[in-house]
Amino acid sequence: MSIFCQIDDKFVPLYRVMWIAATPHFCGDEECQREGFYEIRLEQDESVWAKSEERDKMLAQIEAWQGDPGIEEEGDEEPW
Ligand SMILES: [Zn+2]
To answer: What's the superkingdom here (predicted)?
Structure first.
């Protein structure tokens, strides 16, 4: 299993994730580029912004990574 999850144009290492937003971003600013995206907070005050599918994929990968240390998944490699 990859230790990276692709969010937008970045491969984010799972171990750098601090938290993941449960609800999509909303601030009411008409100019806002993040409306409807989910914030994924990283170390060092960085954030990436995920679509709902990307957030779900990230959550699933973190759960698999944390939860099943011994289990190798086969045929599940993402093309780089
Ligand atoms: Zn905003």
So the answer is: Bacteria
